[in-house]
Amino acid sequence: MEKFDEVLRNHFVVIPPYRGHWWDSSKITVLQCGLLGLAVHVPSQFIPAVLHLQYSSGYAAFAVHDYWRIAMATIEQRRTVDGVTTYRAKIRLKGSPAQTASFPRLTDARRWVQATEAAMREGRYFKNSEAKRHTLADAIDRYVREVLPQKANAGAAQATQFEWWRQNLGKYLLSDVTPALVGEWRTKLANEPMAPRSRKPNPCPPARHRSPATLVRYLAALSHLFTVAVREWGWMDDNPVRKVKKPREPLGRERFLDDDERERLLGACKNGDDTPLYTVVVLALSTGMRRGEMMSLRWCQIDFTNQRITLHKTKNGERRSVPLVGLAQELLQQLSRVRRIDNDMLFPGKTAGKPVELKRPWNAALAVAGVANFRFHDLRHSTASYLAMNGATMIEIAAVLGHKTLQMVKRYSHLSDAHTQRVVEGMNRRIFNHG
User: Fold this and answer.
1) Given 199, 234, 279, 325, which residue has the most CB atoms within 10 angstroms?
2) What is the spatial distance between Cα 162 and Cα 219, in angstroms, rounded to a whole number?
């Protein structure tokens, strides 16, 4: 017979019942023996437990009861009309629904009982069972339906990303989505050619592939889906994307206008057509606002008295207050005197509800000013660079630009080296009276 310590180690043991003493061991004392149950006394040096026997079709199952949760496992032998023998295992754990499974061999049933009971005690079983019940396509559908609408700014881009994951990995069960599988498709995503950017017919268009930054965005979208599935839905036990290596993104773009370029560009904008391009460019350089933030401005957001612009809808989803001073304030005050009474947008376009289109006059101003390799968003980089060169700290630059963390503004740290040196020199003069 098996020793009691072996029962404790295995948690379950199945033996054919017979009359007489059930245990040939000096480590336990039989208190009661009957057809429906067996109670034993365990010495104090062993884990306090009671073994219960459930008689069923010629086999009995013992389950160890611990201090915290009581588990009962039974294995029932069944014979079909065709004479095939199967073993039906059932586990009942207090506080959890009963779990059953059938196996052709008794050893398979015992192995399943041991593994399942351990997983149930550790809280892993039901998450694993949910992962085997849902595919990645199911998770994407729920995420797009419940989570994506809350992401107003990134919703459209992530919808495209999730559609790619659905087409390639949607058929997989969540339990089968491993870090190795995600890593394999990350490589395929990087090597997959993209459609040419130009609409003009070209018999030999240059090959285009997704950039490392784009790959990171695809992985980030999938990773957040798995995070929600783990923390909120209880569909998974872990996030497989967490273990996948992300491509290294290149350093952020640092293009900004030098003094000569700035004067030429502002002159070209001012002497251009009758669009408000000059006002928009001055406002961008003065405040560091994004193009979308400026073009969606309405007059109710402008407070000339307190010299503030309130942005209710920003990229990171937080409200931000932007100082309005100097030339930018003067230009907006001039614009307010000739504003349209039928439209409360600062820069209304010809189409109702749409802002003015500045792409054509912007490109024309760049050509006239002779400024190359410069995008509209680089005006924001120029603002940050001017702030750094005028002694602003990284925290102050992040506050002006509306960044939640300092990671995005570290690219401008080298521009404030002279200011940092002056601060250190001043500190040394004060404490050492030297220099």
Assistant:
1) 279
2) 10
- Mean pLDDT of the 24-44 span: 35
Q: How far is CA 287 from CA 127, 251, 337, 347, 366, in A?
A: 49, 24, 22, 16, 21
Beta bridge partners of 198: none
CA distances to 243, 291, 296 from 281, in Å: 44, 10, 15
Which residues fall within 8 angstroms of residue 240, CB to CB, at 6 or more apart? 177, 178, 179, 181, 182, 226
Give the H or E element holding residue 31.
strand 29-33
Q: Give yes or no for residue 385 having a pLDDT over 50.
A: yes
Q: Taking the model in full, what pTM does it have?
A: 0.56
Q: Outline where 274-391 has alpha helix (H).
A: 277-287, 291-295, 326-337, 359-369, 378-389
Lookup result for tokens 């559609």? 163
pLDDT given for residue 416 in this prediction? 58
> What's CA 425's distance to the chain center, in Å?
44
Q: What crossing angle do the helices spanning 259-270 and 277-287 adopt, rounded to 10°? A: 150
The whole-angstrom separation of Cα 23 and Cα 29 is 9
Instruction: With CA atoms as reference, report the closest residue to 240 among 188, 160, 184.
Output: 184
Q: Say how many Å lie between the first and final Cα of the chain, rounded.
A: 89
Q: Which two tokens stand for residue 336?
A: 């307010």
What is the spatial order of strands in the sheet that 320-323 belongs to? Answer: 302-303, 308-311, 320-323
Cα(175)–Cα(240) distance, rounded to whole angstroms?
Answer: 10
Whether 19 has a pLDDT exceeding 80, the answer reads: no
Q: Find out whether 193 and 209 touch, Cβ atoms under 8 Å.
A: yes
Q: Which two tokens stand for residue 267?
A: 């002159």
What is the tens place of the pLDDT at every residue in 88-123? 888 876 656 677 888 888 888 888 888 777 776 655
Q: What does the alpha-carbon distance between residue 74 and residue 53 come to, in Å, rounded to a whole number?
A: 9
Q: Is 94 helix (H, G, I), strand (E, B) or coil?
A: coil
Q: What is the pLDDT of residue 200?
A: 59
Task: Work out the pLDDT band at 131, boundaries 50, 70, 90.
Answer: confident
Q: Alpha-carbon torsion 409, 415, 421, 422, what sign?
A: negative
pLDDT for residue 81 is more than 90: no
